[in-house]
Design a protein that fits this description.
This protein has 444 residues and is α/β, with parallel strands linked by helices. Helices cover 36% and strands 15% of the residues. Helix 1 packs parallel to helix 2.
């Protein structure tokens, strides 16, 4: 995935200005999708372009590819394709995209592609293309059939589980690297282990992102208002969901299954930048581009107030380094309530995503994250294991050692409980074969 480091470029009239190694979520079909997922925040963006055909032209593709590569001052560049549903563009479009990337890339630069999809259009040709060109695919799947089909339906309201599972099997058979993108919402939040074990054991994925659904209940489709829909997960539910999965993962799956929020948390406990925009102190280096070349401050703020311009009229670099975008990113830090600034888990949370800061703090200040209760509960719950794993990393030992450490702790705790309950003439719980009074009982 893209780096969040910064570099500098000389500009006219100044010695140098900081240039972020920014990332763009490209939407070649805009909000157009062949599904009608009930909680999708992006479908309403179609209203922004009432006269559009919602297909990226070769002119925009060429300008985007060239400008994006020219602007990056890092050795690896990632093109991220999203939607709507990006595969609606057809395979020939992505063949042209890869050709342009190779034509514009700098010497010794590595170019990668990621693509987020609902999987419904994937076939052997798509998968062979993905494998040949090293695409990393994010496949949307919300858990077992009943939980997935609750909200992820097609335009006719029909379930999509079977076709998504077919896509997962096909990618595995054809050697395509993919992650699972699972949203957490009102229907599946109460079933953390069902969801996790299904993805781990049935889908057999090793990489999972759990994305909380916080869906504004308004008529605009923008990030405004304080109400959320009944499909949204609550902060308390999200915290319990993550804890339920973490407690199993930390005992058996560390180093085998990679859960994004667990990896991000470990980075924070190890003293590194979290590497995920919602937990960074500032934001603004993860932007979104519409099919016509319009660039927006963030994927969650594709709305008129956050339009930076169009890359056919203004260079991408000028938009990314604009004062408007700088303020957008700095506001994440500068508007953080005192309640959050003084919080013991701020070092990992940093107030969460600005789109979810819709509550008031206990002392009445605006700007508290809707998921705050869940974040606090989860981050405090994992503090001990994270400290242990971070220490292992500092000593160049595998964090997976936490599993042995926990087993020893739990075995010792169970033994101490059993010893406290043993009678003098009972067999000693330690397994020595002696009576308790002649074994551990002598020490008491």
């Amino acid at each position: 995935m893209p780096s969040h480091t910064s570099s500098t470029l000389p500009t006219a009239g100044t010695a140098s200005v900081p240039v972020p190694a920014f990332h763009v979520m490209m939407k070649p079909r805009g909000a157009i999708c062949n599904l009608d997922c009930r909680y999708c925040y992006f479908l309403s963006k179609e209203r922004l372009y009432p006269e559009s055909r919602f297909r990226m032209t070769d002119e925009v593709l060429d300008a985007y590819t060239r400008q994006y590569i020219e602007a990056q001052q890092v050795p690896e560049v990632t093109f991220a394709w999203q939607g709507g549903e990006p595969t609606l563009m057809g395979l020939d479009f992505f063949r042209r995209a890869v050709e342009r990337q190779q034509g514009y890339k700098k010497p010794d630069m590595k170019v990668f592609n990621t693509l987020q999809t609902n999987g419904t259009l994937l076939d052997e040709a798509w998968c062979d293309f993905f494998r040949e060109h090293g695409f990393l695919i994010g496949l949307s799947l919300d858990g077992p059939r009943d939980l997935h089909d609750r909200y992820r339906v097609d335009k006719a309201g029909k379930p999509t589980f079977d076709v998504v599972m077919r896509a997962a099997r096909l990618m595995q058979e054809r050697g395509v690297e993919f992650n699972i993108l699972a949203t957490v919402h009102a229907a599946n939040a109460g079933h953390p282990l069902r969801v996790y074990r299904f993805l781990r054991d049935e889908v057999k994925t090793r990489f999972i992102q759990f994305i909380p659904i916080v869906e504004r209940d308004n008529d605009t489709g923008y990030q405004e208002g304080e109400r959320v829909t009944t499909r949204s997960v609550t902060g308390r539910e999200y915290g319990r969901f993550l804890i339920g999965i973490f407690d199993e993962w930390v005992r058996r799956d560390v180093g085998q299954v990679y859960v994004q929020i667990f990896d991000v948390s470990l980075a924070a406990w190890a003293g590194e930048r979290p590497g995920l925009c919602i937990f960074m102190e500032t934001c603004g280096d993860a932007l979104a581009m519409e099919h016509n070349g319009d660039l927006y401050s963030c994927d969650h703020f594709v709305e008129p107030a956050h339009l930076l311009g169009n890359l056919l009229e203004i260079s991408m670099m000028d938009m990314v380094t604009s004062e408007q975008q700088r303020l957008f990113g700095a506001n994440k830090r500068d508007t953080l309530p005192r309640y959050c600034r003084e919080c013991d888990v701020r070092f990992v949370c940093n107030g969460g995503c600005p789109k979810d800061r819709i509550l008031d703090t206990p002392d009445g200040e605006a700007g508290l994250n809707y998921l705050c209760e869940g974040f606090k509960t989860f981050f405090r719950h994992i503090d001990g294991p994270m400290r242990f794993m971070a220490n292992e990393l500092r000593h160049r030992r595998p964090p997976a050692n936490i599993m042995t450490h926990i087993r020893r702790q739990e075995t010792e705790t169970a033994l101490q409980i059993a010893l406290s309950r043993a009678g003098r003439n009972d067999p000693c719980p330690c397994g020595s074969g002696k009576k308790y009074k002649l074994c551990h009982g002598q020490e008491r």
